[in-house]
């Protein structure tokens, strides 16, 4: 068994920063599965074309290639049923789908304008050109213009975390007493942010801040020791 | 075994309209449990004071009283383990907590300004006076002022449903192939809305619209036949 994971990096191959790759890196650790990392950059599309994907994460498990973080998570759950569960049963697997959607449209999309201008600092020249052009087209503004309002925009972002915050006031993790894939979905966004930006997303007294710290420490501090700014 | 449920109504005792009571009414049906309804109105605080609650739902199960919809749902799951599960396992129970928080802060709070002015039409004089005073204090505006912007505000509400919508594009229910408590959390908000208001919340081609229709039809059309406007 040799697992390999394509992970998004910039000039520093030891500092993976994709929120979606981090969901899977945490999921692999949760299942106690070692995976070789294959550093991948925005302009290396050809490296993953054989797997019919234009984005990472892409997981290779022997002859099997799986693309898209949600598909990879469910693949891991099914392929390694004797390892700790990512979902805690069928109900959890179904509900994690909505938490995954919340993670995409509220968390990741809400984080993007706050940190996107910092991402170019991690990239080499080719990636910088690609990234700036594609993201400025998406936002309809320069990256610097997007970032210019972040001191006020962060207030709305913090408010958008209320469903996460209220849950963490009632229980230690989204997964209950211990973290599971629901936590990794949300944590991926925060690990992305700290990998690329020193912008302060959370107030120190926010329950989300304490929860993030516990996940940074999980698995021997794997996320905390993978590059990024202190939070 | 005699279950009794205090349910919020107005002048029509057969038209319960609280989003939180509807979560429990659906949960009871899911578990195949009959429950006698005790119609309760905003100004009847004294009727539930013995149960240390100021709000409904309150469930009475013999000598046991349980207050708050989340506490009632978990009570039902634990007290009736041989009935169909509301959560589909421990993972689902944990993750439903975040969906519950999303249902409160995004769905119910997002719906409120769109329909609050219509609620008084269902109420008798005492309840109307109480409701108008307490809600206008909460909003800092008259109910009519709150409602005056709903034609534009509904756009933001629809957008806020994206996590629900994206999930329903991938699977039939939040609970997976069949509905469970995650669905009832969200559905409670929509049933509240149609019980009190004819304001069109959803476009007909929205996957959320089709999902709502399936839940209106569930349990022999229980929700559809409990009063309210066609949707």
UniProtKB/TrEMBL annotation, chains A, B:
This protein's record includes keyword Cell wall biogenesis/degradation: no
InterPro entries: Glutathione-S-Trfase_C_sf, Glutathione_S-Trfase, Glutathione_S-Trfase_N, GST_UstS-like_C, Thioredoxin-like_sf
Keywords assigned: Transferase
Domain of life: Bacteria
GST N-terminal domain: residues covered: 8-84
GO BP field: glutathione metabolic process; L-phenylalanine catabolic process
GO MF entries: glutathione transferase activity; maleylacetoacetate isomerase activity
SUPFAM superfamilies, per database record: GST C-terminal domain-like, Thioredoxin-like
Protein name, per record: Glutathione S-transferase-like
């Amino acid at each position: 068994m040799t697992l390999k994971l394509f992970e998004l990096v910039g000039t520093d191959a030891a500092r993976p920063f994709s929120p979606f790759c981090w969901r899977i890196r945490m999921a692999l650790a949760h299942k106690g599965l070692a995976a070789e990392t294959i550093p991948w950059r925005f302009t290396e599309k050809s490296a993953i074309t054989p797997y019919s994907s234009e984005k990472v994460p892409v997981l290779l498990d022997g002859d099997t290639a799986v693309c898209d973080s949600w598909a990879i998570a469910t693949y891991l759950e099914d392929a390694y049923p004797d390892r700790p569960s990512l979902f805690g049963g069928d109900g959890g697997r179904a509900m994690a789908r909505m938490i995954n959607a919340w993670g995409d449209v509220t968390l990741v999309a809400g984080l993007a304008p706050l940190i996107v201008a910092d991402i170019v600092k991690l990239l080499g020249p080719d990636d910088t050109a690609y990234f700036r052009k594609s993201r400025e087209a998406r936002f309809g503004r320069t990256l610097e213009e997007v970032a210019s309002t972040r001191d006020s925009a962060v207030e709305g972002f913090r408010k958008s975390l209320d469903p996460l915050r209220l849950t963490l006031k009632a229980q230690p993790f989204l997964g209950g007493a211990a973290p599971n894939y629901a936590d990794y979905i949300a944590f991926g966004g925060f690990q992305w942010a700290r990998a690329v930006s020193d912008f302060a997303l959370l107030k120190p007294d926010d329950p989300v801040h304490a929860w993030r710290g516990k996940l940074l420490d999980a698995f021997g501090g794997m996320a905390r020791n993978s590059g990024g700014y202190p939070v």
